[in-house]
Structures are given as structure tokens and as C-alpha cells.
Write a structure and sequence with these properties.
The structure is a single chain. It is globular, with a radius of gyration of 27 Å. It is mainly α. The protein has a domain at 170-273. It is built from 14 helices and no strands. The chain binds heme C (5 copies). One heme C is lined by residues 69, 72-73, 76, 79-80, 115, 118-119, 130, 132, 134-136, 160-162.
Length: 289
């Protein structure tokens, strides 16, 4: 009985194989992955389909430019949900191992993950409003190289998921050389009452007008604690060089541009001026303390 069935099936397969293919080139083109990611709708896919999710066009331009945190978090809740272990596997307590940069007075609460420190901890929420796409502008999961194939998004930083210049904006060194401050803030801050606003109440006052910072709250907190300013301008410097900030003209600015500032932009980067993608923030601001 069984072998008769097998024979019948084989015959059916054989006859199918021998029939001429009706697929046209157009059909084939439709079945192929799209040549360019531009035309693809970044509609949510089933997050359990790993390959489709990994190559979801939301990871690339142009879709990433308008992606909301909500969309990213549909699949990536893991970046915000777990925190760090209370003790390392070897038994070292996280609470007992503070790094030098965790001793600035603005650092509060238990140790936490990188993403949580920038997105959900109370201090982060009071001075910043970072989005996934403030830092993530695309990355090629195949080889982390934006120039290795015709379909890759050009302009990506080689072997990086985030362009380091973005980190440098808040983690560059303290540019005392352009300020008339004689040396590092840790040595000479006391000569200025440890207060950046000694000068910055009147100098470069047009600042922080970007969609990922809370300008008014920064000034309010900095009025009583200069570690707020220093925290983003040298206090947590992962880079030996300062970021070349745009130089907005401010009321009362001298007309001559100092030599170090020649060629500087006079406005913040366009993508930071646009209103952030229009969803309600996934991490709403806490009531002001
Ligand atoms: C449909 C689900 C889905 C959505 C939506 C999604 N991702 Fe992903 N993403 C994935 C999967 C799956 C991977 C592969 C993870 C792995 O290999 O570990 C991935 C990988 C990544 C990676 C690592 C890439 C690498 O080079 O290894 C980053 C960074 C990332 N996603 C950021 C984002 C951001 C930012 C958004 C929103 C703009 C987003 N993702 C939206 C599913 C998604
Ligand atoms: C302050 C900048 C910044 C913000 C904001 C940010 N990320 Fe990341 N993200 C990073 C960096 C840096 C890495 C590590 C990159 C590497 O290893 O090359 C990373 C890694 C990742 C990865 C890879 C997996 C992993 O854990 O290493 C995913 C997925 C990811 N981010 C998703 C998100 C999502 C979703 C959001 C928004 C909720 C977000 N990120 C917000 C900077 C940021
Ligand atoms: C808009 C400003 C801003 C940007 C952009 C930014 N950071 Fe930060 N970063 C901060 C602030 C503020 C803190 C301190 C948070 C606190 O003390 O609670 C911090 C803290 C950190 C810490 C210490 C975390 C800890 O638990 O002690 C690391 C590491 C770090 N940032 C790395 C990065 C990297 C890497 C990037 C780029 C992918 C980046 N940051 C981009 C503002 C920024
Ligand atoms: C002695 C006065 C003085 C003090 C104190 C001072 N600054 Fe400045 N700062 C200046 C001057 C002057 C400039 C350059 C103005 C210009 O653009 O012509 C400047 C520029 C800057 C810039 C822009 C640099 C650039 O490359 O565009 C930043 C950021 C900055 N200051 C942050 C701080 C912070 C943070 C503190 C405290 C930790 C501080 N300053 C303390 C006088 C001061
Ligand atoms: C959370 C991080 C953060 C804090 C806190 C912070 N800054 Fe900034 N600051 C930045 C970033 C990022 C930029 C660049 C914004 C842009 O591209 O326009 C910037 C730009 C500046 C500039 C250049 C202004 C210009 O011409 O555009 C000055 C000056 C400056 N900050 C001084 C200060 C002072 C003074 C304080 C305290 C009152 C302070 N910052 C607090 C992140 C921070």
C-alpha cells in the first residue's frame, strides 16, 4: 500500500517538474530582496521572525530618521529592562566599586546600565531627552561596514553601531584653552568659585537649543551645581579632544571671531533642530524636583 502511494507521489512530482516554468523575470524580481532599502515600508514585522527583524528597514535610512522609541522598543525592550547585577559573578558588590566618573555630584542612585543611564534614570531625564535615533543612525549588521555593498547605507562609521562624535558632544575634554581659563577645571575651577556661570551667565548664552537637551532645566540645576555643566563638558571626558561645538552668536558677542573658532558652524546640526519624532516619549519626564 505504502509503496503505491510513494509511486503516485513521485509521478506527481515528476510531472510537475517537467512542466514549463511560468515565472517571468518580473515575478523573480519581486521575490528578490529589494535592491534599495529606500522604497521599503518599515511596517512592523513579527518580532519573532529573527532574520526579517534583523534586516528590518527601520534600522537604516531613511526609515530610521523618523523611527520612534516605541517602534524600536517593540523588539528591543532588553536595552531598558534589565539593570546590572548587584554583585559580579566573583562576588564584588557593584555598590562598592564606583569609578572616578561616578563621583561627580550629579551621579545618583545604584549602578545602572549604559542605556538606562542615558534614557531613564532621573538625572538623565531631567537634563536630556535622548531618543534611540539621537545615537543610532543605522549600522550594517552583516559586517559593520557601510561601504561593503551596493545596498548598504553610506556614511556609517566602520565597525561601530553609533558614530563616536555623538558621544563626544557630551564626553569631550574641557576646552579651557579657548576660555581664558589657565588650565584644567579640576585645578583652576576654584579661582572661578567652581562656577561656570561666573562667565557663562553672559558668554555663549545661546546654547542647548536642540531636541535632545532640556535647556531650561540645565540652567536651573547649574545655578546651584556646576558639576551639571562640567559633567557634559569635561567631567566625564572619554576623549582627549573637545567637541567643536557650533558657535551661536549671543547678545553682546564681540564681532571678531577668535582664530580657534574660524570655520565653526553657527547653528546646531539640522537633525537636532527638527522636532523629535511625534510619539509621546516612552520615558516621560518626571515632575521637576
Ligand atoms: C522588528 C523588530 C526590530 C525593530 C523594530 C528594531 N530592531 Fe534592531 N534588531 C532586531 C534584531 C532581530 C537584531 C539582531 C540582534 C542580534 O543579532 O543580536 C537587531 C539589531 C540591532 C542592533 C545591533 C546591530 C548590529 O550591528 O549588530 C542595533 C544597534 C539595533 N538593532 C537598533 C535598533 C533601533 C535603534 C531600532 C529603532 C530605530 C531598532 N533596532 C528596531 C530587531 C528589531
Ligand atoms: C547615548 C546614545 C545611545 C542611545 C540614546 C541609545 N543607544 Fe543603543 N547603543 C549605544 C551604544 C554606544 C551601543 C553599543 C555599540 C557597540 O557596541 O558598538 C548601543 C547598542 C545597542 C544595541 C545592540 C545590543 C547591545 O545591547 O549591545 C541595541 C539593540 C540598541 N543599542 C538599541 C537601542 C534602543 C532601542 C534605544 C532607544 C530606546 C537606544 N539603543 C538608545 C548608544 C545609544
Ligand atoms: C546629550 C549628552 C550625552 C550624550 C550624547 C552621551 N552621553 Fe554619556 N552621559 C551623559 C550624562 C549626563 C551622563 C551621567 C549620567 C548620570 O550621572 O546619571 C553620562 C554617563 C555616561 C557613562 C557613565 C555611566 C555610568 O553608569 O557611570 C558612560 C560610560 C557614557 N556616558 C558613555 C557614553 C557614550 C559611549 C556615548 C555615545 C554613544 C554617550 N555617553 C553619549 C551625557 C551624554
Ligand atoms: C573665565 C571665564 C570662563 C569660565 C569660568 C568658563 N568659561 Fe566656558 N568659555 C569662556 C569663553 C570666553 C568662551 C569662548 C567664547 C567665544 O566663543 O568667543 C567659552 C566657551 C565655552 C564652550 C564652547 C567651546 C567651543 O569650543 O565652542 C563651552 C562648552 C564652555 N565654555 C563650557 C564651560 C564650562 C562647562 C565651564 C565650567 C566648568 C566654563 N565654560 C567656565 C569663558 C569661561
Ligand atoms: C546634558 C549635557 C549638557 C549639559 C548638562 C550642559 N551642556 Fe553645554 N552643550 C551640550 C551639548 C550636547 C552642546 C552642543 C549643542 C549643539 O549642538 O548646539 C552644548 C553646547 C554648549 C556651548 C556652546 C554654545 C553654542 O554656541 O552653541 C556652551 C558654551 C555650553 N554648552 C556651556 C554649558 C554650560 C555653561 C552648562 C551649564 C549651565 C552646560 N553647557 C551644560 C551638552 C551639555
Amino acid at each position: 500500500m505504502r509503496w503505491i502511494l510513494c509511486l503516485l507521489l513521485a509521478a506527481a512530482c515528476g510531472s510537475k517538474r517537467s512542466s514549463p516554468s511560468k515565472a517571468t523575470a518580473e515575478d523573480l524580481a519581486k521575490a528578490l530582496p529589494p535592491r534599495t532599502l529606500r522604497a521599503v515600508d518599515p511596517a512592523p514585522v513579527d518580532p519573532r521572525d529573527y532574520q526579517r527583524a534583523k534586516w528590518n528597514p527601520i534600522h537604516f535610512r531613511p526609515a530610521i530618521d523618523t523611527a520612534t522609541d516605541q517602534q524600536c522598543l517593540t523588539c528591543h525592550r532588553e536595552v531598558l529592562e534589565p539593570s546590572v547585577r548587584a554583585t559580579s559573578p566573583a562576588g564584588v558588590a557593584a555598590a562598592a566599586s564606583l569609578a572616578w566618573y561616578q563621583t561627580l555630584s550629579t551621579y545618583q542612585g545604584d549602578q545602572d546600565t549604559f542605556h538606562r543611564r542615558h534614557l531613564v534614570t532621573p538625572y538623565a531625564q531631567s537634563v536630556m531627552q535622548l531618543r534611540c535615533t539621537t545615537c543610532h543612525q543605522g549600522s550594517d549588521p552583516r559586517d559593520e561596514n557601510g561601504a561593503s555593498s551596493a545596498t548598504a547605507q553610506p556614511g556609517l562609521t566602520l565597525r561601530k553601531m553609533v558614530a563616536p562624535e555623538i558621544c563626544q558632544m557630551c564626553h569631550g575634554s574641557f576646552p579651557y584653552q579657548s576660555m581664558g581659563v589657565p588650565g584644567p577645571w579640576s585645578e583652576f575651577g576654584s579661582a572661578f568659585n567652581n562656577n561656570c556661570l561666573t562667565c557663562h551667565a553672559a558668554i555663549r548664552t545661546v546654547r542647548h537649543r536642540v531636541n535632545y537637551l532640556k535647556a531650561a532645566e540645565i540652567e536651573r540645576l547649574a545655578a546651584t551645581n556646576s558639576d551639571v555643566c562640567y559633567g557634559c563638558h569635561g567631567g566625564r571626558a572619554w576623549y582627549r579632544t573637545p567637541f567643536p561645538y557650533p558657535r551661536h552668536l549671543w547678545p553682546g558677542a564681540p564681532t571678531a571671531v577668535p582664530p580657534w573658532a574660524t570655520g565653526r558652524a553657527t547653528e546646531s546640526a539640522a537633525r537636532f533642530l527638527a522636532p523629535a519624532p511625534s510619539d509621546a516619549p516612552t520615558h516621560p519626564s518626571p515632575a521637576t524636583p
